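With this grant's support, we have paired protein sequences with backbone structure tokens. One protein thus recorded is set out beneath this paragraph:

_____
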Amino acid sequence: ALERLEYFSPFDSRYDRYLAGTYQPTEQEELGMTLFFSNQFTNCNQCHQLKQFPNAAGETFTNYTYQNIGVPVNKAMRAANGLGASHIDHGLLDHPDIDDPAQDGKFKVSGLRNVALTAPYMHNGVFKDLKTVLLFYNKFLTRSSKAQINPETGEPWGEPEVSANLALEKLEAGRALDDKRIAALEAFLRMLTDRRYEPLLEFQPSVDPN
């Protein structure tokens, strides 16, 4: 009942105000929006678009499916929770009612509303910054040696915790993104912040306008 209330899902972000004609996106935000909904340049909307058409009102930015995108182990969290280095998080397959090996390593696609304020990221909190998440996805689209390095650690991204059932068909769809387009996508994601939380964006690092 709470989730049906307008208070829970106000749909009043800058993106929603743009749809209503009361907000004019910046050039960077417009580029990010175009890239996000593109079926040619990015793979974002393959999992993060529920409505049939782009720019539809009430979009939750998740299709509520379960996917394995190859997230590496969060070693710091693993050390803190005491499960040990040999533990494997099997995601959906760990559910007592699921025994299909094809679900191994899959987690529900997260919605992107207020994503700029919900760090750390991924199901295990392995990434601290939103830009890092975008760079992680980009590594599947390019063979550049620089793209294979996690900027937060200065080391390779790490192997998937579960290497089976990777959604490579989706992850490898699209084109490699340069710094300008990465920044534009981040700017668009910041647009998805509810109006009441927008002041908190001032405490988040701004995206590179270039």
Notes: The CA atoms of residues 64 and 109 lie 6 Å apart. Helices lie at 14-19, 27-37, 75-81, 130-138, 168-171, 179-190.
